[in-house]
Each structure stands twice: as structure tokens, then as C-alpha cells.
Write a sequence for this structure.
């Protein structure tokens, strides 16, 4: 290169020479003196016409790869210039495609990006990457169902990256510093937007619309914001201060939040001058099975029970004697009682583990499903079993027993041989003959599902409902049947996970923006980009080269079992910086560029374009060599 580089530089500077890099000829037609050449140019993600070759993009890039110019003897960054005299004198970003973790995430979180930044100790930059797509990193770092980990290529080596634990680590680390409120966003538009429900979907949409310049008001029936995150997830899994902090970050942008405000009628909202309404109420209504005895004293509903616990004045120490019961608003129903939770989902396990902490003498669960078909996550089941909760699988419930004084005595059950739901969602159960038996209990808690409360939408409101009592929408635009009304989250899908609510909030905000600007509601199609699924042969080759070393997943530290059942202190205690960086170092950087956007923020001339696509052009030439 010492000999040829000067010639390349001279050629590149020639006014009559155009060099097309990253390009291939895909077709050639014509005759001598009149050829048409079809050329496909791959994206380099940096505009050559703007790039000055300063190298600041490479300085901040956290992704390290083997050097391409010197046979891997040195290292380079995903943002790089191949060698000092390269023509053109501009940088490029190497991408292989979308990392499978991002592809699996409903909100397209750039997990590889913040993991790479954690490895380098750039924790504030890592939090910035997370918040590009998700306003609730502290929440999702604790309770997300983390589909990203199911798709992680590292799982093909030994175990997937503990992505949600790394997200939590970054959040806790940055949040431990003095809080700097975000600057309010000035209004650019006059149209006011109303959002009903201050859960993750509604608040995500409120954030996005506020940043676009709309006046946004959020109506919340509860005295606290956060929806089911704040009143439906126990403190030992999700501390209230995390929810409050992340809600406040949205409110400080300029969102008006009206707590303890119940919307009685959609017409009242429009009469107040709002031009568009988003219905984003959560699934706060628990379901009571229609069996005899379901209204006896001692029968509770999951959502009401968890809400009462979260809203009551509960100290961090559970009662240890009858005298302590007076300190708790709800534990007088639990203390020294036999509690039976009907249901086998994640919420049912939350209910059961909460009852343990409120001093119940015994806590049992019973559900239709077999042990390996329970709808709850396996790690949740294991934690419940560790805390002494007994699970009765393959049970159907016939009636709640009366002790003769109008109080619960237990549940009469029957063993289940098989069950299934038909096309209409109706349950058909095949039971085992002569298997009737009673599970004794003093308290029964139904936890067999939740649904959104839509009583404020009467039949004449112009908003259509589905047979399953969710709002009927166009799935591409989230528009309801009444103009100006949109719906997303649990009010549309039924009970969903936080990250799904965040995703629907983002998309709905985009639709509302298009509606208020008079644009076509249907979103423009996005390019179908390749997902990097590493094959076993490639993984083996990288291990042989020493690029991958066997390193098991770093476990999340937790409180000892005997300690965590005594109070509502958070069970998982979080990574230390050393543990977090060790776990982050396991990432395989599947997509090469992680799209952390550090280069985009750093570039002073706006040359970085991560949305650059492949371009095909036709060039007329007289000769081909």
C-alpha cells in the first residue's frame, strides 16, 4: 500500500474520475459506445459528501472488531476508515444486520448498543441508548419478559446475556446520582390531546406527543400514576420509587397529569376542547369465576387485592404477631390464615407471594394447567416454590365451601384430565371421575385473568367493541371507529407485558400525529432488514480463533429466602459494576454496529445516517473495462 496509496489519492482527486465504493455491477446492457450499467451500492451509513474524515465517530464507537486491513492483527471500531490513505477520505460503519435481541423486542430496544457501552463503563451513554426507545428502563429492567434473551445468539454457546439485568444496573447506577429534570418541550401545535390512563402505554404516547409539540393531558382515576405497574406489581419486584421517577421524567416534559380523575364519558373530553383522545386504560378489573360461593366473606379478587396492598400504608416489615396487624390495612385478612389462590399465571404468583409477606400461615395455588404448562414464567414458579408456596396443578373448581357462617371454608375441586378452549374462547374441561376433593382455606383469591374497564364508553359513543370487550381498532393505525379516537394497550389487546404497551404507545402517538396533521393514517412500510442469526459453524470458528470464550451467565444476586419472605424489600439486589461489565463482555456483537447512536450524536457535520439503504442506479457509459 505504500506504493499504490499515492496513486489512489491522485485518482480520487481527479475531477473526471468518480469512484463508487461498496458497489457491484449487477447488469450490463447495450452496444459499443452506448452501454447501460446497473450498479448496486451498499449503504456505508456515513455520507461521503459530508464526512471530513476527522475520526470522532470511531473515537466514541463502543464496538470492537478485528482489523479488516491487517488480517485481524489489530482491532478497529465498527465506525472506521479502512486505512489512513483510504479513498474516499471518509469513514464507514460496518453493519451485518439487526441483532436478534433487537428484532425480538416489541419496542426494538438497541440492547447490543447499551451492552457495548456498559462494557466500556459508559453508563450514562448506555441509559441514553435505552431511553431512545423505552421511557421505562428501570421498570423493564425488573419485570420485562425479556424476549430478547430467548433470541440471544449467546444462548447457542452456553447461556444468553442477562440483558434485563444489565438494563436495571444502568438505571440504578444513573438514578443514584442527583436527578436533573428534563427541559420542558415548547408547544408547536394548538391541537390538544387527551390520554385516558397513566399506564405504560398512555405515558409513552404522552411523552412522544409532547416531544412533537402537542399539549397533552393524561387522565388517571387512581391517586398515583403508573397504572398496573404502580398498583399491580408487588414492591418486592418493582419498588414504587422507580415508577414514580420514570413517570416524573415524562411529566416534566410538559405533560399535564390529572390524578384521581375518572372519565365518565368520551363526549365530555371532546367538549373540553381536545381534538383527539387515546384510550389507554389498563386491565384493572379482575375476573370472578361464576361458581357457587364466589361472594362469600373471604373471597377476594387479584387486582383489588394487589391494589389495596400497594396503596395502603405498609412498612417494610410484615406482621409477626396479631398485635402488629393493626399497622396494615389489608393484612388482617391474611395474617395467620390459610390462603388459596385460584390461577396459575404471573399475577397469581404475585398474589401468592404477597400473601406470604402479609403473614399467611399457609399459601397454596390451584390451577387448570399441569406443572409444565402453567402460563407463568418458570423463574417465577421456582421463586414461589422456594418461598414455601404449594401448587396444585390440574384442578377445576366446582364451588367455594361455606363454613356455615357465610365465610370461606375451602374450594371443592376435581382433577382435570384434559382441557381446551374452542374458537369462541369457551372452555371445555374433561375431568377425572370420582376425583372430587376439597382444598381447605380461610381466604380465596381469584386470579384467573384481568380486563380493561370500559364502562365510560356507552353503546352510543360511536366506539365499537369486540366480542371480548376490547376496543375495535384498525391494527395498523390504532384508530377506533369514532373519528379522533384511538386506542392501544390493554384496552385493545387484553393483558399484555410492559414492553408491548410501550411499543403500542409509540405507534399510536405516530398515528395521532398524522391524524392531527391531516396526513394519511396508514404508516409507510419499513424496509425488511436481515436478522443476524449466527450458525453453529460460525460460532465454532470464532471459538477456535479465540474470539469467543466459554463464560457462563453472571447470576443476579438475591436476598436469602429466609430474609425476603419477611418483608417487601426487593428480592433481586442488582449487579455491581464489576459483575455488569463481566456480563456485558459476553456479548457477541452479532450485528457488528450496535446502533447505539454515539456516532450520530458526536458527528458535528451530520454525516451519520443509520437509515441509509441500498441504492441501485443505472449509468450510461461508452466503454467497459
Amino acid at each position: 500500500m505504500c506504493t499504490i496509496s499515492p496513486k489512489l489519492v491522485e485518482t480520487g482527486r481527479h475531477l473526471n474520475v468518480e469512484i463508487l465504493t461498496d458497489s457491484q455491477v449487477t447488469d450490463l446492457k447495450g452496444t459499443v459506445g452506448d452501454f447501460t450499467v446497473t450498479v448496486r451500492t451498499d449503504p456505508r451509513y456515513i455520507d461521503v459528501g459530508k464526512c471530513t474524515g476527522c475520526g470522532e465517530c470511531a473515537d466514541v464507537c463502543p464496538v470492537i472488531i478485528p482489523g479488516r486491513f491487517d488480517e485481524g492483527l489489530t482491532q478497529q471500531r465498527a465506525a472506521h476508515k479502512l486505512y489512513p490513505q483510504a479513498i474516499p477520505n471518509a469513514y464507514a460503519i460496518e453493519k451485518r444486520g439487526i441483532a436478534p435481541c433487537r428484532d425480538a423486542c416489541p419496542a426494538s430496544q438497541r440492547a447490543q448498543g447499551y451492552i457495548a457501552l456498559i462494557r466500556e463503563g459508559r453508563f450514562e451513554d448506555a441509559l441514553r441508548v435505552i431511553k431512545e426507545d423505552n421511557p421505562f428502563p428501570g421498570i423493564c429492567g425488573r419485570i420485562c419478559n425479556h424476549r430478547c434473551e430467548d433470541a440471544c445468539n449467546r444462548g447457542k454457546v452456553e447461556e444468553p446475556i442477562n440483558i434485563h439485568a444489565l438494563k436495571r444496573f444502568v438505571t440504578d447506577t444513573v438514578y443514584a446520582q442527583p436527578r436533573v429534570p428534563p427541559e420542558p418541550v415548547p408547544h408547536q401545535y394548538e391541537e390538544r390531546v387527551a390520554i385516558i390512563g397513566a399506564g405504560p402505554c398512555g405515558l409513552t404516547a404522552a411523552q412522544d406527543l409532547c416531544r412533537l409539540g402537542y399539549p397533552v393531558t393524561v387522565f388517571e382515576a387512581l391517586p398515583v400514576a403508573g397504572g398496573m405497574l404502580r398498583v399491580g406489581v408487588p414492591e418486592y419486584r418493582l419498588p414504587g420509587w422507580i415508577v414514580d421517577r420514570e413517570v416524573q421524567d415524562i411529566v416534566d416534559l410538559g405533560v399535564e397529569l390529572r390524578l384521581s380523575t375518572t372519565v365518565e364519558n368520551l363526549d365530555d373530553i371532546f367538549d373540553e376542547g381536545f381534538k383527539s383522545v387515546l384510550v389507554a386504560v389498563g386491565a384493572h378489573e379482575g375476573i370472578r369465576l361464576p361458581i357457587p360461593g364466589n361472594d362469600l366473606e373471604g373471597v377476594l379478587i387479584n387486582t383489588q387485592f394487589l391494589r389495596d396492598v400497594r396503596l395502603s400504608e405498609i412498612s417494610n416489615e410484615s406482621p409477626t404477631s396479631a398485635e402488629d396487624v393493626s399497622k396494615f390495612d389489608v393484612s388482617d385478612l391474611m395474617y395467620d390464615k390459610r390462603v388459596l389462590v385460584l390461577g396459575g399465571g404471573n399475577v397469581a404468583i404475585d398474589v401468592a407471594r404477597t400473601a406470604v409477606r402479609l403473614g399467611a400461615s399457609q399459601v397454596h395455588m390451584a390451577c387448570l394447567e399441569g406443572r409444565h404448562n402453567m402460563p407463568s414464567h418458570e423463574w417465577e414458579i421456582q421463586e414461589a416454590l422456594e418461598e414455601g408456596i404449594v401448587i396444585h396443578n390440574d384442578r377445576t373448581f366446582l364451588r367455594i365451601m361455606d363454613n356455615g357462617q357465610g365465610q370461606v371454608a375451602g374450594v371443592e375441586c376435581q382433577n382435570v384430565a384434559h382441557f381446551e378452549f374452542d374458537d369462541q374462547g369457551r372452555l371445555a374441561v374433561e375431568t377425572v371421575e370420582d376425583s372430587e376433593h376439597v382444598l381447605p382455606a380461610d381466604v380465596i383469591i381469584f386470579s384467573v385473568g384481568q380486563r380493561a374497564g370500559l364502562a365510560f364508553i356507552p353503546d352510543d359513543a360511536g366506539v365499537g367493541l369486540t366480542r371480548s370487550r376490547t376496543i375495535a381498532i384498525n391494527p395498523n393505525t390504532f384508530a377506533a371507529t369514532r373519528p379522533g379516537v384511538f386506542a392501544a394497550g390493554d384496552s385493545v389487546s387484553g393483558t399484555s407485558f410492559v414492553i408491548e404497551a410501550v411499543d403500542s404507545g409509540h405507534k399510536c402517538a405516530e398515528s395521532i400525529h398524522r391524524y392531527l396533521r391531516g396526513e394519511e393514517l396508514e404508516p409507510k412500510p419499513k424496509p425488511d432488514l436481515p436478522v443476524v442469526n449466527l450458525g453453529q459453524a460460525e460460532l465454532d470458528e470464532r471459538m477456535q480463533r479465540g474470539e469467543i470464550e466459554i463464560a457462563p451467565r453472571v447470576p443476579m444476586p438475591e436476598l436469602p429466602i429466609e430474609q425476603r419472605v419477611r418483608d417487601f424489600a426487593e428480592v433481586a439486589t442488582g449487579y455491581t459494576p464489576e459483575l455488569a461489565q463481566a456480563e456485558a463482555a459476553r456479548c457477541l456483537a452479532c450485528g457488528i454496529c450496535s446502533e447505539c447512536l454515539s456516532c450520530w450524536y458526536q458527528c458535528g457535520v451530520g454525516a451519520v445516517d443509520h437509515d441509509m439503504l441500498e441504492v441501485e442506479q443505472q449509468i450510461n457509459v461508452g466503454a467497459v473495462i
